[in-house]
């Protein structure tokens, strides 16, 4: 039977020229999707070369300043934003048009952005004291145009969601005197507001600081990984490891999307890049379209919580909290592993229920060749080692870039010449544009929160509503973080939620690292939370299935991500805080059992089909008990599992037998 089914799968795949190439699965990931989209201009002629020169100059400028010649932070961040704005306006049209020409209005905006950067550089000594306090008329107009450019840059690259949220916060600045209760404030003049928010406490604050120092560096690193063949190697390894397992393509999606998502920093972009390959494969091997799309969305979003890069979120967290980067990635490791174990078993149980087979070994990448190319992992391993050793993030990222170039020289197919290096630098700047825009726009919101003190008021509200009940406070914080994150990329979602929610949790006594990891998780999974699940919607578009239903299915598959953050509070051992080595090992072991049982509850499969609703409820309760560290909860969880086994052995068995007798009669 198995041979027949595998032959059927082989026939399906071998007859599809889009999937098979030279007798093997074509594992080429659509990496162009990481830097292109339907709303970009296709630049040609002299504008193409101008764009390329500016992009390469921008990448080299960042690498030079970060490693060799530090300059004033405000000048560096403003120049970073100028490069992003110029390239963004050149690449992204302001309105729908079939023309690829850059109109005169866009050139005017580009000139305006250059002038603003020059104005900050030329008047830096005075602006430090004037902006947000006693601005001149010219200060005001420069800051106003700068804010409008940030909003327009964000609208072009990411749509209306974040700009609309920014406008809501801006409106609050002027409506505050007329609002009741904790939302009331004295109000601010337009001049003070504009120059304050377009200064070091807003647009050029912590979000752009992280963007200019870390995000840009690691996106350039990702571009070098792509050009050196490492990105493609990730996909080949995933296929080699999991392709021939039952439901192989779904497991490939989990592994490859985790690795790619960790680096590229955007859930929806990762879905499009890896999902263009994995989703059709999942459908070919028998997975329903909706499940295939949801699996890809869940795995791609999970890449944002996977150390050591965490889609750039870890850098932002380190900057906001002052906690060492190495501490953050160590604390985030076990929760990320639990998340992917849960997703893995979700797809495994689906394969069991549907009797889905893997891809025949003969169609997969050759394992011997994969092992011969194991040196391609060196840049990522080197990065991890340097970060754990406590070396600076900038040093680790730069060495990673150099290592990517060096290892490319080992193979003729991946060898990078001067042209490839220049293309990688251009690609890095091109891929960074959306993130440069969203963190600058998020800086507007962060600036408003700081100016009006609404973040502290949110904290007070959280305290009063929860009445010092930490669990209730965490539930409210979860809801706020998800709502604020809906429709926004992870970095912006976390920046906003961290400003509005995390201080309240810390004031209630929660450890700062725990509070920020909690908020970060829910900012990430807002991408798979209906009604605005960006990653799920992107995957649904590839699979040709209903976006909202795909979002619901992704929510189910990613359920562990909604539970694990609460475990930070109940089981701090999971983020390696508190407890002895023995208690930590036990907590991790029982948590793994817990996420396995959680997958069983969601999928209705516990060693066999478990269809009854009460069995699934008991499994869900047992999973929660196992995830909470403690001998007492583990014993109750074990008792529930024994109960489920007895139910399946006697009650469900007798019910099934009676049903068969009735059917026969």
What do you see in this structure?
This protein is mainly alpha-helical and 665 residues long. It contains 30 helices and two strands. Strands 1-2 form a two-stranded antiparallel sheet. The protein is globular, with a radius of gyration of 26 Å. Residues 1-5 and 659-665 have low confidence and may be disordered.
Number of strands: 2
Termini gap: 29 Å
Structural shape: globular
- Strands side by side in the biggest sheet: 1-2
Which residues sit in consecutive blocks of at least 5 with pLDDT less than 50?
A: 1-5, 659-665
Strand content: under 5%
Largest sheet at a glance? 2 strands, antiparallel
Helix tally?
30
Helix content: over 70%
What is the structural class?
mainly alpha
Radius of gyration: 26 Å
Mean of residue pLDDT values: 85
SSE order and pairing:
Blueprint: H1 2-14, E1 20-21, E2 24-25, H2 45-67, H3 73-91, H4 104-122, H5 124-130, H6 137-158, H7 161-175, H8 190-197, H9 206-227, H10 230-242, H11 248-264, H12 267-284, H13 289-302, H14 313-321, H15 325-354, H16 367-372, H17 378-388, H18 393-408, H19 418-452, H20 454-466, H21 470-485, H22 490-500, H23 502-507, H24 512-525, H25 534-543, H26 547-557, H27 559-570, H28 581-603, H29 613-627, H30 631-664
Antiparallel strand pairs: 1-2
Helix pairs in contact: 2-3, 2-9, 2-19, 3-4, 3-19, 4-6, 6-7, 6-8, 6-19, 7-19, 9-14, 9-18, 9-19, 10-11, 11-12, 11-13, 11-15, 12-13, 12-25, 13-15, 13-25, 13-26, 14-22, 15-27, 15-28, 17-18, 19-22, 20-21, 21-22, 21-24, 22-24, 24-27, 25-26, 28-29, 29-30
